[in-house]
Here is the input.
Amino acid sequence: MFTKLSTQAAKRKELRTYLSRYWTLYLLLLLPIAYFIVFKYIPMTYVQIAFKKYSIVKNVWEMPLAANYGFEYFIKAFSNRDFLFAVRNTIMLNVLDLAIGFPAPIILAIILNEVPYPNLKRFTQTVAYMPHFLSWVIIAGLALQLFAPTSGLINTALVSMGFKAIPFLNESTHWVATYIGLGVWQSIGWNTIIYLAAIAGISPDLYEAAAIDGAGRLRRIWHVTLPGIRSTIVVLLILALGRILGSDFDRPYALGNALVKNVANTIATFVYTNGIRGLQFSLTTAVGLFQSVVCVGFLFMADFFAKKFGERGIV
Here is the structure.
């Protein structure tokens, strides 16, 4: 009994010593914790709007429960053709973004790492990541000036050379290709920085040993560089899969138009059209909740398979 009390007293003393040494760090931690509680967790209480009949004059706790045990708006959403098309388009665009946009920065980072001229490397990297700082409204304006059917710079040049104008922005297939291409252009440089940082952490001794063993440049990339950044690739892939049903609002809204509505209408634009402009707050809250749950499911599934293949994952 005495030994147990003395052990507990020693632990309390150790805790007091620890807190007296690091209390400033915990004090600094209070601000971000307060931010998340006030701006992230407290607003989560309003998720229940998805299960209630929304009333602007009532508190969220006083709103009556919707029909079908609160699932009225989920049923209404899945009965809405526009919502189903929006889900299809969101998945299609995100899968294409993942298939084309995810490997692009990895390839660019490897190429830049192999460039023997530091000045050229820095110039290329700077030019590549500058588009990241442009908003999609600005990018959409640039796209309109370049790709407009009749007045765009590229189509004007094509017509003047005797070729047919390409409907970059007013035909579904071409619009999707333009959408994905602009997305890769906007994000490739910024994501390349992450992979270049991971490559910089690989020991030069590994490259030297591979070169001594007779490995060429491609062999060194395959057996040294890619395994060295595999954990970074896996973490970013998990995060990307977690957003497979998520969608930014500004990108499809800025680039979309009435002619390509069948492929440009995503969940984010559906929520804006029906929730903010259509005042169907319960319906669009239900849509947002469904979207979040599916994204979290994909995130955990990707993390599970990553751990199965020997990676650490993120959870």
